[in-house]
Amino acid sequence: xxxxxxxxxxxxxxxxxxxxxxxxxxxxxxxxxxxxxxxxxxxxxxxxxxxxxxxxxxxxxxxxxxxxxxxxxxxxxxxxxxxxxxxxxxxxxxxxxxxxxxxxxxxxxxxxxxxxxxxxxxxxxxxxxxxxxxxxxxxxxxxxxxxxxxxxxxxxxxxxxxxxxxxxxxxxxxxxxxxxxxxxxxxxxxxxxxxxxxxxxxxxxxxxxxxxxxxxxxxxxxxxxxxxxxxxxxxxxxxxxxxxxxxxxxxxxxxxxxxxxxxxxxxxxxxxxxxxxxxxxxxxx
Length: 285
Prior knowledge:
Shape: globular
Structural class: alpha/beta
Number of domains: 2
Protein name: Universal stress protein
Helix content: 40-55%
Number of helices: 11
Oligomer: single chain
Radius of gyration: 20 Å
CATH architecture of the largest domain: 3-Layer(aba) Sandwich
Strand content: 15-25%
Mean pLDDT: 87
Low-confidence stretches: 1-5, 58-64, 261-267
CATH class of the largest domain: Alpha Beta
Organism: Methylobacterium komagatae
Largest sheet: 11 strands, mixed
Domain UspA: 238-282
Number of strands: 11
CATH topology of the largest domain: Rossmann fold
InterPro entries: Universal_stress_UspA (IPR006015), UspA (IPR006016)
CATH superfamily of the largest domain: HUPs
Family: Belongs to the universal stress protein A family.
């Protein structure tokens, strides 16, 4: 039996990496590098979907602009195909079984296609970088709410997978419990896992306290500790600070405990961390 097949990460059999091309000078996708190295660590099949946002359409009123838009579309399609080809080449060199797709679709079909495809995989890896039209965040939200799959949201600068030290952001909610269970392959493979509860006692105990959840993880072979913190600077900032102190490689958390509408209007932990995360986020809803 191979070494990969004996690791907890071998539970991951297929991964989908999605990247959205909005411009010819888009920054390099961290999600692709992260997905490639995660696929290598787990022995999983990798699919890279490098999609370009098509501007042109069939509406008569855009006739005066259609020629210019068609030129842009062709250029973005070429960029998307080049990204896919480069990913396939890197996968071949690393001995990873990889397939690629480079669809050219208008909005919102480009995001809907990604969410539909995500249902066919164990896990989805997406970029969490700032974009002009925030397509990255839209893709993450749509996949979480529509695919039934968890997402690893990768911020810029994290082009290689690492999971030695992991924080589980725990608020006692159903979303947090699902995220932790979905992330079990990563938690079991980690050297150290810390359950971090951020909030006052009443908020944390609306659900299940971290001290009661820890034995469940320990029974799965997770090396887990517990840390209850007060949100002096807000929940998101407290998690960012603790991730630095713990030297975390990943934060596991339930996404959008409140509705997306409420998070949009008054802010929320998920949106705040997606805008500025110190490490990749394992998200489940």
